[in-house]
Amino acid sequence: MTETPTPETLARRVQDGDLRLHQLDDEADAATAAAARRRLLADETDTELATVADYSFDAERATETAVENLIGGAQVPMGMVGPIRINDDDAETDGGAVSGQRYLPLATTEGALLASVNRGCAAIRRDGGATARVLQNAMTRAPVFRVADVGEAAAVAAWVREHTDALAETAESTTSHGELTSATPHVVGDSVFVRFAYDTKDAMGMNMATIATREVAARIEAETPAELVALSGNLCADKKPAAVNAVNGRGRTVSADVTLSRETVADVLNTTPEAIAEANTRKNLVGSAKAGSLGFNAHAANTIAAAFLATGQDIAQVVEGSNAITTADVRDDGDTLYASLSIASLEVGTVGGGTTLPTQAESLDVIGVRGGGDPAGSNADALAEIIATAALGGELSLLGALASSNLASAHEELGR
Fold it and tell me: For 60-78, how does the pLDDT look when each residue is reduced to its tens digit (9 = 90+)?
């Protein structure tokens, strides 16, 4: 019977050059391999990793789905906001993926963030709740092809437009859930980009889109003069600020809005509708335009990042999530404040990836959206609507703090 190697033995083998870090997983179970890496770091950096070693997820599953060269877990403080009142059952309109009141776990190291979001959610709750809708689900992948010249590029682009249905059949042969909804060619000299958009149901869908696009690209190569250069040509555009996502969307495109009474604005946000509307115009719209920003909002990425960490989303895609516009104006002869937040590219899912880790799965259970929805896609739509509504609460609260000149004092009071 072969004796199980110890972390110390494995660490020495790496130090001696007998093994590479990633090969530890071939020599022992994932937990032992992680312990060996911690032992190596302790020896070479004189750092004990007792807290990093104290994790609750399954090491084997994390190694298979989430991370390479596992050493342990990173703990981020988690709080909650809510209840978030959204798309009430008695609303005159329907079509939302979620209704009633939900709590939202948020993980962050930024003091005062949850207090701020919660204050905005309290204002929303007091005046009947927000309305939120997912307007589009379109995860994208855009390969780039090489052609001989512009004439050939135009011919390839025309072929793609004429054969979208056939390309959809090819793409959908790789998945039981995803659907190719559009294929848009773009010509730049002797380069042809094709931006494919997929309805990925309850998955965030990046892997699904990549695998499907690989097959579609092979068909384009087989039936046209185009030669594939890269499966991702950056017109997708993934994890980078991009106007194409701000205009056309990526992942979920979602909007939330609310109408608040003058009394609620005064009692909860400590200011007036006029002051919030002016602060929004001068800060979020004019200031963002002057800065050349792609996001015309106060701090939507704050709430989005905290929700992504708590629920197992790809945290780098907060870049696209910050592609958001906040509006605010005074209505009803000054009696009410209308405010909205529209997020062009919120990439979220409730199945696969980090959503299967235990902490993140528990968070999705709190929200009530873990796993696949019925109908397919409804859980991820609901998550998007809830995050957008919470982010709208954060926008209202920060605008209120700025309008009433108490932003700094709030951080001082909370000891941050």
Answer: 999 988 899 999 999 999 9
